[in-house]
From TrEMBL:
Zn(2+) 2 binds at residues 114, 149, 374. Binds 2 Zn(2+) ions per subunit. One of its GO terms (cellular component) is cytoplasm. GO terms for molecular function: aminoacylase activity; metal ion binding. Its main location: cytoplasm. Pfam families: M20_dimer, Peptidase_M20. This is N-acyl-aliphatic-L-amino acid amidohydrolase. Keywords: Cytoplasm, Hydrolase, Metal-binding, Zinc. PANTHER family: AMINOACYLASE-1.
Length: 402
């Protein structure tokens, strides 16, 4: 029997591929298929399942629960999101919701890495643990949320503030990480704070043939210059220290410019939008004060309007003070995994747990795999997927016995 036939007939891979074929895709994801599929999984695993709607009827949160031997202890949450980002099928060599498997065992689908893999690996690990008769001290909740790819505003973000979430009594969470093209496995313990804001500069309007004082263009030019200085300083920090990754520095990008009415008229208002991810070492109040000082120096009359201004969130401790970290680490050590602690470059639902003071780690066990999240031809190799189930078996056993 060839490896290919093994992969085709493997039950864990069949379930993974079935889940991948459900097109829960933005911009208007329909979760009905996921719900039906997950209800079947819960039944097969003999786990109770609950569905919550923290925002509206289109955005469910599914939670399966495996009660522990000491259910009064804070529980372990294994979280994943059901939604996936849009596809451009013309750029794919396989249908993006086909879950085709090629001769090398690569399974192609949107969500193969981000992050239907992890959700199904949790279930695969729990299936194996249940079959072996294992029981653990802590209750384990396996959650499947909506809307992560849009920032979780209709999913995890409101969910963590509901009575239903509080009743889950979560003490530790696992959520998504990233693939790694090398042997290493990145583990994410923190995220930067996303700030997105508009500088709306008002100034003297008039004819384009004059040199009017206090124009919107001059003001905006001054402020954009200051933002670009900050950007350059962070580029240098990265260049000068090979130990740093992009998650360690503040990223600054000018993302939108607008304004003007006619090409020969000095406009009354011009607007610039920035996407900034504040590094963990940035004093938020100081940064805000700096921006207001630049506005004053530019001559005033500039409104600062926030689209996002996320608070600083304490990183999850990765030392003896956090027994869940110690349990996680002993599992990956026993398996001989080469893990590397990192700060996540983007945002994940982990931040909503950390904001409540709940320790959370981001981990997707996909090494020797190109990072293809949100990319065309997203794939995960079958053996990497199956190895991930083995890895989660050990991790779940350890963290649920803390
Ligand atoms: Zn994701």
């Amino acid at each position: 029997m060839s490896a290919n036939t093994d992969w085709e007939s493997n039950e864990e891979l069949q379930l993974f591929r079935e889940y991948l074929r459900i097109p829960s895709v933005h911009p208007h994801p329909n979760y009905d298929g996921c719900l039906e599929f997950l209800k079947r999984q819960a039944k097969q695993l003999e786990l109770p399942l609950a569905v919550y709607y923290p925002s509206n009827a289109d955005n469910p949160v599914v939670v399966m629960t495996w009660i522990g031997l000491e259910p009064e202890l804070p529980a372990v949450l294994l979280n994943s999101h059901m939604d996936v980002v849009p596809v451009f099928p013309e750029n794919w060599t396989h249908p993006p919701f086909g879950a085709d498997i090629d001769k090398q065992g690569r399974i192609y689908a949107r969500g193969a890495q981000d992050m239907k893999c992890v959700g199904m690996q949790y279930l695969g690990a729990i299936r194996a643990l249940k079959q072996s008769g294992s029981r653990f001290r802590r209750t384990i909740h396996i959650s499947f949320v909506a809307d992560e790819e849009m920032g979780g505003a209709l999913g995890m973000r409101p969910f963590v503030h509901t009575d239903e979430f509080r009743a889950l009594n979560v003490g530790f969470g696992l959520d998504e990480g990233l693939a790694s093209p090398t042997d290493e496995f990145p583990v994410f313990y923190a995220e930067r704070s996303v700030w997105r804001f508009y500088f709306k500069a008002s100034g003297t309007a008039g004819h384009g043939s004059l040199l009017l004082p206090g124009t919107a263009g001059e003001k905006l030019n001054y402020i954009v210059g200051k933002m670009m200085e900050l950007r350059r300083s962070q580029v240098l920090r990265l260049e000068n220290n090979p130990e740093l990754t992009i998650g360690d520095v503040t990223t600054v990008n000018l993302t939108r410019l607008s304004g003007g009415v006619q090409s020969n008229v000095v406009p009354p208002q011009l607007t610039a939008c920035f996407d900034v991810r504040l590094a963990l070492d940035v004093d938020h109040r100081q940064f805000e004060a700096d921006m207001h000082r630049w506005i004053e120096e530019a001559g005033g009359g500039v409104e600062l309007e926030y689209e996002h201004q996320r608070p600083r969130v304490e990183p999850t401790a990765t030392d003896e003070s956090n027994p869940f970290w110690m349990a996680f680490k002993s599992a990956t050590d026993e398996l001989g995994l080469d893990i590397k602690l990192q700060i996540f470059t983007g945002g994940t639902d982990s931040r909503y747990l950390r904001e409540l003071g709940i320790p959370a780690l981001g981990f997707s066990p996909m090494n020797n795999t190109p990072v293809l999240l949100h990319d065309h031809d997203e794939f995960l190799q079958a053996d990497v997927y199956l190895r991930g189930i083995e890895i989660f078996k050990k991790i779940i056993k350890n963290v649920a016995n803390v």
